[in-house]
Amino acid sequence: MHFSTLALATSLLVSAFSSISAQELKAIAYVSAANSEVTGTISFSQESKHGPTWVYANITGLTPGDHGLHIHQFGDLSNGCISTGPHYNPHNETHGGPEAETRHVGDFGNIFAQEDGTAILNFTTHSLKLCGKKSIIGRGIVVHEDVDDLGLGGTPLSNSTGNAGGRIACGVIGYPSI
C-alpha cells in the first residue's frame, strides 16, 4: 500500500512538471536605486525549459552612455546592491561580453542610455534558464555606473567584473504575478 501511494505521488509530480515545463516560463526584476532616479524593469521569457530566454530591459534615469548590466549571485538587497555578491558564474568562467565564448552566464555587456537617460536592451540567449539547477530566479541583477570592458581590459577586474564600476541600481529576479 505504501509503495502504491509513493508511485501515485511520483506520477502526479511528473505529470505536473511536464505540464509546467511545456508552458512558457516568465520572470521579472524591478530595479531601483536608493540614492538616484534610476528605475526600470527587466523581463525574461522562455518558451520551454530547453529553449532560449528572451531578455527585455527598460531602464530610466541613467546618465547618457553605456552602463554594465549583469546578473549577480544573490537576490539579497539587505545592504543595497553590494549584498548581491559577485556576478552569477555557475561554470567558473572569466568575465566576457554577451557574444564571448567564455563568460559568466549573466554577462549582458552594456545597456546604452540615450540623452534622456532611457536605455532599452532586447536580446535572446541560450545561457540563461528560468528553471532547473542553474535558474536565475532569486538572483540579483545590477546596473553599473560605468562601461563594461567585456573582459578585454587586461586588468584583474576586467576578468571578474569588466571594470564596470559602482552598482547604481539593482533588483531581484522573481516570478511575475500574472
Automatic annotation (TrEMBL):
Transmembrane segments: none
Superoxide dismutase copper/zinc binding domain sequence ranges: 38-173
Catalytic activity annotation: 2 superoxide + 2 H(+) = H2O2 + O2
GO molecular function: copper ion binding; superoxide dismutase activity
Signal peptide: 1-22
SUPFAM superfamilies tied to this protein: Cu,Zn superoxide dismutase-like
UniProt similarity note: Belongs to the Cu-Zn superoxide dismutase family.
Protein name in the entry: Superoxide dismutase [Cu-Zn]
